[in-house]
Amino acid sequence: MPAAAITDPAAAAERTNLLGLARPDLEAFIEQLGGKPFRARQLMNWIYKRGVDSFAGMTDLAKQLRARLDMLAEVRAPEILSVRRSADGTRKWLLRADASQAFEMVFIPEPDRGTLCISSQVGCALDCSFCATAQQGFNRNLCTAEIIGQVWLAERELAREARGARSARAGADPGARPEERQVTNVVLMGMGEPLANFRNVVPALSILLDDFGFDLSRRRVTLSTSGLVPQIYRLAEETNVALAVSLHAPDDALRNELVPINRKHPIAELLDACWHYLDEQNGRSVTFEYVMLDGVNDSPAQARSLARLLKGHPAKVNLIPFNPFPGTRYRRSPAHQIQRFRDELIGQGVLATVRRPRGDDIDAACGQLAGRVIDRTTVRLGAKVIGVAVHP
C-alpha cells in the first residue's frame, strides 16, 4: 500500500500523527480514546514491524478503537520529492517539510549493514564553515514524527525495492536471492544539530530503541553533535545511544573558526561532558569526527596535539575526507596526508580510522546535504523556496 504522505500539512493538523508518539505518550493517547494501554504495543507492532499505515488493516484492534483512530489519528510520513542514486548504491531522498521547505536523508548500503543518515532540522544555525547545510541557515526544527518518519519511510521504500529486485531476478533465475537493503543502523548526522532540537529528538530515540518500535540496539543508533555541552549532560539522563562529536580541530583557536559553537563551549568543557556521558551510560567510546581540510587542520603536529587531548580516554577518531560543495574555500587533504595523520594518531596510541566517501557524486556525502535543494524543490513545489541556499 502507498505510504501516507504530507501533501497539505495544514489540512491534517487536527489529527495526531502516531509516528510522533513514544510508547508512554501513545499509551496515554489510547486511553483518551477509551482503549487499554496494551493496545499501544499492538499499534506499534503494526506501524513499525509491519509498516502498516491504515487502521482498517490492524485487525487485532477492536473495531470501535479503529474507528476512533481513523477519525483522530494518522500514520503520516514525509512526502518524497525526489530520489537520487549514487554509482556506489547510496540513495538520497529529498523530503517535503512544508509548502516552502525540504530536507534530506541518505541510505548507505554495505555488505554487513545498511546505515540511514537522518536529519533533525531544516537547515542549521551553528554555522560550521565547512558544511553545506550551514550555508542554508536555520529554518525550523523537525517534529518527532518527521524524524521517525524518515526511518519508517526508508524501510518501506527499501522493502519495495527489494520486492522489485526479487521479482526481476525470479524472472531470470528462479534460484536468485534479492539483494538485501534494510536499515540496521541509524545515525543522526543529516541536516541540523540534533541537540538543538532536544525535545523532539529524545522521543525519536526512544522509538528507535523500543522493543515495539524499530528495536535497534543502542550501539546501532548514533547521535552526532557539534558540542552543545549542557544538552550532552541532559542526554546522559535520557538515553544511552552512541555519541559522536564533530571536533575537527585540536585547539580552541582553530575550532572557534571552524565550529563557532566552540566560542561558547571550548574543547576542555566539551571533553568533560563526553567523558561524563560515557560514565553515566557505560558506553564503550566516543567517536570524534575530524574533517580533513588541506593546509588547515591536517599537519602531523596537529595530529600529535589531537592525540594529547584524547590519549588515555575511550575515544576513536574518524577522519573524514572533506567533501566539497559550490562556493567553499576549503579543499580536501591529499590521501597521503590523511594517511600520515592517521598513522601519527595510531602511533600516539589513539584509535583512528578513515571514512570512505560515499554518495559524493549525488551530493550525499558528509557535509554535502542541502547543497542543491533549491533547484529540485522549486520545480516540485511550484513555489518560492524560503531560506534554502541557492547554488549554481
CATH superfamily of the largest domain: Aldolase class I
CATH topology of the largest domain: TIM Barrel
Order of strands, main sheet, comes to: 3-4-5-6-9-10-11-12-13-14
Number of strands: 14
Q: Kindly give the count of domains.
A: 2
Sheet-strand content, in percent, reads 15-25%
**Could you tell me the radius of gyration in angstroms?**
22 Å
* Fraction of helical residues: 25-40%
- Please count the helical segments: 12
Alpha-carbon distance between the termini? 38 Å
Contiguous runs where pLDDT drops below 50 for at least 5 residues: 1-12, 173-181, 364-369, 371-392
Order of helices and strands: EHHHEEEEEEHEHEHEHEHHEHEHEH
**CATH top level label of the largest domain:** Alpha Beta
What does the main sheet amount to?
Answer: 10 strands, mixed
Shape type: globular
Mean pLDDT: 86
Examine the secondary-structure arrangement and name the CATH architecture of the largest domain: Alpha-Beta Barrel
How would you classify the helix and strand content by structural class? alpha/beta
